[in-house]
Specification:
The chain is an all-alpha fold. The protein has three domains: 118 residues, Four Helix Bundle (Hemerythrin (Met), subunit A), CATH 1.20.120.1810; 53 residues, Arc Repressor Mutant, subunit A; 81 residues, Arc Repressor Mutant, subunit A. The protein contains 16 helices and no strands. The protein is elongated. It starts with a helix and ends with a helix.
């Protein structure tokens, strides 16, 4: 028994709830079918009776989701919501017991609730389910081997790829606050050293603009008009658009092959003058 489940079973609210639920009799298959028929006809009293008779099922399923993070009675509450949806959607023509049908609805309701509460950043339901399987497998393998299991061993245990497990574990890791300090004796936080790549950096902006202008000056001195036009457009020195040989050929009124030959010739000239170009740009 896990520590979380042990604590739950010793909770007064849980014990009071269990005592009430145990007083509700279970249904035979014939009684369950009778109530389901009445529910389909709009009988709310029958729906309530069918819900109450399956509250134990919600508790049983909810125990596999219990943790120290989320109050267990909240999990039960969400499971009960899933149970109520199952009563509304149940179709007798499927020829299955109601409890078999309700399991999926209960699990889905609880899983969605747990997923929304467990992490600062909400994970998709399938990823949350995979993460739960990973944690269970990790606990089982730790007891089996007497050590922390390797990711390959976990992957084999739950029949999942190592890449998928690695991805889920990475996105499920708790985010760090930018205000957290490196140590008790330090006034330096992550925010002090983390660069915000979305903010304008005046120094970088100046250097990029300077390098671009110097490169253009170099090309103007050493290349012909067409050679310069091809290099400027092919290497984003004019704008951010991607110019293919065909697109640039249409713009210059020549064939795509001609553009390719011009680019090749221009690059050879630049390579011959690379030392001069580096000096021009970085001096």
């Amino acid at each position: 028994m896990s520590k979380a489940l042990f604590e739950i079973q010793n909770d007064d609210a849980y014990q009071a709830y269990i005592k009430q639920v145990k007083k509700i009799p279970l249904l035979t298959s014939e009684k369950e079918r009778e109530l389901s028929l009445r529910v389909a006809q709009g009988d709310k009293a029958a729906a309530q009776q069918l819900i109450e008779a399956n509250l134990r099922l919600v508790i049983k399923i909810g125990q596999s989701y219990c943790s120290n993070i989320i109050p267990f009675m909240d999990i039960i509450q969400e499971g009960n919501v899933g149970l109520m949806h199952a009563v509304e959607k149940f179709d007798l023509s499927k020829n299955v017991r109601f409890s078999t049908y309700a399991v999926l609805w209960i699990k889905q309701a609880i899983a969605r609730f747990v997923a929304s509460k467990r992490h600062t950043i909400r994970l998709p339901l399938k990823k949350e389910e995979l993460l739960r399987k990973i944690y269970i497998a990790e606990h089982i393998l730790h007891q089996r081997f007497g050590r922390a299991p390797k990711i390959e061993e976990i992957a084999k245990e739950i029949d999942c790829s190592v890449a998928d497990i690695d991805l889920v574990m990475n996105i499920a890791s708790n985010p760090l606050s930018l205000d957290i300090e490196f140590s008790d004796n330090s006034n330096t936080s992550f925010a002090d050293i983390c660069e915000d790549s979305h903010q304008l950096n005046p120094e970088r902006e100046f250097l990029e603009r300077y390098s671009r202008n110097e490169t253009r000056s170099f090309l103007k001195t050493h290349l012909s008009f067409r050679e310069r036009a091809v290099i400027l457009h092919r290497f984003h020195l004019v704008d951010s658009d991607l110019y293919t040989f065909q697109k640039l050929g249409d713009r210059l009124g020549i064939s795509a092959e001609a553009v390719r030959q011009i680019e090749k010739r221009a690059l050879n000239k630049i390579r011959d003058k690379r030392d001069e170009l580096l000096k021009c740009v970085y001096a």
